[in-house]
Write a structure and sequence with these properties.
With 157 residues, this protein is α+β, with helices and mostly antiparallel strands. 27% of the residues lie in helices and 33% in strands. It is built from four helices and eight strands. The longest helix is centred in the first third of the chain and has 22 residues. About 13% of the residues have low confidence.
Length: 157
């Protein structure tokens, strides 16, 4: 498991550097965390606590994320962005709108990890020829406000 994450981290670093140069430095993508202890201290966000904003409300979410990478959400905006979605029952978790970058969405998906206030949004896929990176918005439920955001996208052949 750790070896797989290290591999994805290295691949993300290489892919991010390549796409940043090719696309003119997309501010939504970052380098992965450089903390060598990230993997041992990180907590995975359960899939039920991370929701990709659907196509119907994506434009609104992306507009909100145009200048800020992390936005705390109030209940009304959460329901507006996620119509018909069952929200987590844990009242201790608060919703945050965060940036994500996707590649081949038919061949991969998002995962999210937290560590000491930092949040890492990862998109990993298996694709021989992934399409260009695409901005996506996610609602992530967290116990405490995030202080830093890492966003990576990796395509492996």
């Amino acid at each position: 498991m750790i070896a797989r994450k290290i591999f994805f981290s290295i691949a993300a670093l290489l892919f991010t550097a390549t796409t940043a140069v090719a696309d003119g430095a997309d501010a939504w993508q970052t380098l992965p965390p450089v903390d060598p202890n990230w993997e041992t201290a990180a907590q995975a966000v359960p899939p039920a606590d991370m929701i990709v904003v659907p196509d119907a409300t994506r434009a609104l979410a992306l507009k909100k994320l145009a200048t800020d990478s992390i936005i705390p959400l109030d209940p009304l905006l959460t329901l507006k962005l996620l119509p018909g979605v069952t929200l987590p029952a844990d009242a201790a978790l608060k919703p945050y709108l965060v940036r994500g970058v996707a590649l081949d969405e038919k061949a991969g998906g998002f995962s999210v990890e937290t560590n000491a206030g930092a949040v890492w949004v990862m998109f990993n896929c298996l694709s021989a020829a992934p399409p260009p990176p695409a901005h996506r918005a996610l609602v992530v439920y967290l116990a405490s406000p995030p202080t830093q955001l890492f966003v990576t996208a990796t395509a492996l052949q």
